[in-house]
Design brief:
Helix content is about 55%, strand content about 10%. It has five helices and five strands, in the order E-E-E-H-H-E-E-H-H-H. The radius of gyration is 22 Å and the shape is elongated. The protein is mainly alpha-helical and about 160 residues long. It has one domain: Multidrug-efflux Transporter Regulator, Chain: A, Domain 2.
Length: about 160
């Protein structure tokens, strides 16, 4: 299931739009401000706001406009960072997270694993292509440097 297929629902207990399928905030749950999530994850507040805008992270808005996040947000941000570190786009990450949320924890659905494998294989192919382009660039630069060095020695 793609994240774009997930329906936005309104949790009447907390008046929060829920973008994830796993759970909404629960009454009595310990929440933290975005600055605390930033401190605990090492991710800038600006990035956290961007994740929220991209629907990777769901924050409850207080009357004063502050964002409150739960403990799960810290782990979710770490997961987002891991996928970004693999070179995935926020759209791809959104699909992965949506698929994982529909699986019976802790075992992912086979369709999720197949999509993830395909995504990783495509990304590896992209990386290998980039490496060949960089290798060719490296060779051309090495040749130009050698040529210029020879030219300087003959002068």
């Amino acid at each position: 299931m793609k994240a774009s297929d997930a329906m936005r629902s309104l949790d009447s207990d907390t008046d929060v739009i829920v973008y994830t399928l796993r759970k909404a905030f629960r009454k009595g749950e310990v929440l933290m401000r975005i600055s605390e999530v930033s401190r605990r994850t090492g991710v800038s507040i600006r990035s956290l706001r961007y994740y929220e805008q991209k629907r990777l992270l769901c924050a409850r808005r207080l009357e004063n406009g502050y964002r409150d996040l739960d403990e799960e947000a810290v782990e979710r941000v770490r997961t987002i960072q891991m996928y970004l570190g693999l070179g995935l786009t926020t759209e791809q990450i959104e699909e992965i997270l949506a698929c994982a949320e529909t699986s019976p924890f802790p075992h992912p659905l086979p369709v999720c694993e197949e999509e993830l494998l395909s995504l990783y294989q495509d990304k590896l192919q992209d990386v290998e292509h980039q490496m060949s382009v960089l290798s060719a660039l490296h060779s051309r630069l090495t040749e130009r440097i050698a040529s210029l060095q020879r030219q300087l020695r003959t002068e």
